[in-house]
């Protein structure tokens, strides 16, 4: 079985870093992985995509993810109907969002039940814990809420490999708090 994830963020927010961390975590569990961005010469802050593939079998596909199982949105200002374009039936949208479930669904122009949706206040938590609005690792907390993509122990190992000392500790705290705050809408 293969899981394909499409990350929506802005340049400089760390969407590709988060994609890499999830791929690293899955590789520790013996999975085959891919992680790659799609951006050109855009400036910092421009919308960009990143992709993660996780599979039990070798991955033969070498293209962008057009029909993801999961869409992760790091920046709530990117929420629009285009976010769910190509999302598979029974797919999941995980987003940084503070607001009512109804307003979230309205921004995507979907109805409850069209897709699974999980929201977490990633910006609020990142500002509180990291003191900057970098939501990439917080969104991994939302992904962990699904329970079957990667384990907490593998994510912790990947975070400690990617970041060192207090930076790793703060990112792990952010992931944990985002996980605890994540709700399905």
Automatic annotation (TrEMBL):
Residues 11-180 form the Pyruvate/ketoisovalerate oxidoreductase catalytic domain. It catalyses: 2 oxidized [2Fe-2S]-[ferredoxin] + pyruvate + CoA = 2 reduced [2Fe-2S]-[ferredoxin] + acetyl-CoA + CO2 + H(+). This is pyruvate synthase. One of its GO terms (molecular function) is pyruvate synthase activity. The keyword Membrane does not apply. The keyword Oxidoreductase applies. Keywords: Oxidoreductase, Pyruvate.
């Amino acid at each position: 079985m293969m899981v394909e994830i499409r990350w929506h963020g802005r340049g400089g927010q760390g969407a590709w870093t988060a994609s890499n961390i999830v791929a690293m975590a899955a590789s520790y569990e013996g999975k085959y992985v891919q992680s790659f961005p799609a951006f050109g010469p855009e400036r910092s802050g421009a919308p960009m995509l990143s992709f993660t593939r996780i599979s039990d079998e070798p991955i033969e596909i070498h293209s962008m993810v057009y029909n993801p199982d999961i869409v992760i949105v790091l920046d709530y200002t990117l929420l629009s109907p285009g976010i769910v374009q190509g999302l598979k039936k029974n797919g999941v949208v995980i987003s940084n969002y503070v607001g009512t479930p109804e307003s979230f669904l309205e921004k995507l122009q979907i109805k409850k039940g069209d897709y699974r949706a999980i929201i977490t206040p990633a910006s609020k938590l990142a500002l509180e814990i990291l003191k900057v609005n970098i939501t990439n690792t917080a969104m991994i907390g939302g992904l962990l809420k699904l329970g079957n993509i990667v384990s907490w122990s593998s994510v912790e190992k990947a975070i400690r490999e990617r970041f060192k000392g207090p930076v790793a500790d703060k990112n792990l705290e952010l992931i944990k708090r985002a996980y605890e705050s994540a709700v399905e809408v």
